[in-house]
From TrEMBL:
Family: Belongs to the TfdA dioxygenase family.
Protein name: TauD/TfdA-like domain-containing protein
Cofactor(s) the protein needs: Fe(2+)
SUPFAM superfamilies listed in its UniProt record: Clavaminate synthase-like (SSF51197)
NAD is among the record's keywords: no
Alphabetic keyword roster: Dioxygenase, Iron, Metal-binding, Oxidoreductase
Domain (TauD/TfdA-like): residue spans on this chain: 116-388
Source organism of the structure: Babjeviella inositovora NRRL Y-12698
Entry GO terms, CC: cytoplasm
GO molecular function: 2-oxoglutarate-dependent dioxygenase activity; metal ion binding
Chain spans, region Disordered: 390-412
Pfam families the record matches: TauD
Polar residues biased stretches: 403-412
InterPro entries: AtsK-like (IPR051323), TauD-like_sf (IPR042098), TauD/TfdA-like (IPR003819)
Amino acid sequence: MSPPTATTTDEIIHSLKATNLNNIADEGKEILVDLTKGKPAGGYSPFAHLLPAPTLARYKKYGIDTSKGYPEAPPQSEIPTFVDEAYAVRSEGFLYVERGKNADPEKKALFGAATEVRHLTKHIGTEIVGLQLQALTDQQRDELALLIAERVVVFFRDQDLSPQKQLELGEYYGQVEKHPQAVHVPGLPGITIIWPEYYYQTGVKNSFKRIGYTGVWHTDLVHEHQPAGITHLHNDTIPEVGGDTVWSSGYAAYDKLSPALQKFLDGKKAVYVSAHSYFDRNDPLNGKKRVEREHPIVRTHPVTGWKSLYLNRAMTDRIVGLEPGESKVLLEYLFGVFEKNLDIQVRFNWKPTKKGLGTSALWDNRVSQHNAIWDYENTEPRHGTRVTSLADLPHFDPESKSQRQSLGLSLD
Ligand SMILES: [Fe+2]
């Protein structure tokens, strides 16, 4: 579609209404679009004084400088304006090493060093007690990668974790995602910030009745060419009550489907979209577009070999090959399988047992989706640092089995 060629004020006003752009000016007969409109300012934000005390203490201990401002974003000049620039951020494949593949299946080095290994539910979620993430050996890191692949999400309370060590662990697990516009720890672009106070300060006005995007089921970075594998969120400031997160298992969601529906979905692809949107260079007046990439809707996990349903409400747009109406109805059903089946979910409260320490969760985005609960309503601070390791190119192996098939569990 070519850009509209409005030449009169009336036509310009009409195109304003049609495109929701409120930044077109009549400069003679030209239309200028302010392409920075809606774009983050970039650089440092002036919110360092709002940082909660535990975050400040952690940053001080590990030499993170917040004197220029907090948090930091890429410079505005480097933030993509056009969708083709956003596609180009990571359009090429990269070599990925699957750390869980060579790990000891019994995980003796990891479990042997822990004081307790606690499975939180039957199908998803394990807490490891008595280990510091920043002191793990490579052998223990490999075993942890295997455990995350099997249990979907693994938790560590009472962590004294430097941002630098968090980043290093993420680099071990894949290519650390450097977001083209999300805010990060000053000086460390690979560590993004999860901080509701920042969202509030920048215009996200959630309420008890209207919880915005923070309360939507999603999987991190599904629109990438090689999407997210392990995400490691370390919350260094945690509400006294509430602020839990829920994860749901993609393995178990697949096992919930009938063999007929499983067969229908096996080998199908869907379109996955980015969270942020950008102008189309050839059609800037027609609203912003998201990055879109196709991936298999059923993935075979490279470590466990189990099939997993790979979709989520926030970022899976449509199933390839179906009519729009068919895709909508089927996706709605499949989102519900993740969201409504409590037996395939784990709800985790982040509170540490020791004051001044933080809690980490490491989950495998290839086999899960998650949702953060905003019941504390920003009346108490919550702050975390997040490192996401991009992983393999998603693939579907027609010979692979589901989790329950592989484990010999009942399929009824
Ligand atoms: Fe997330």
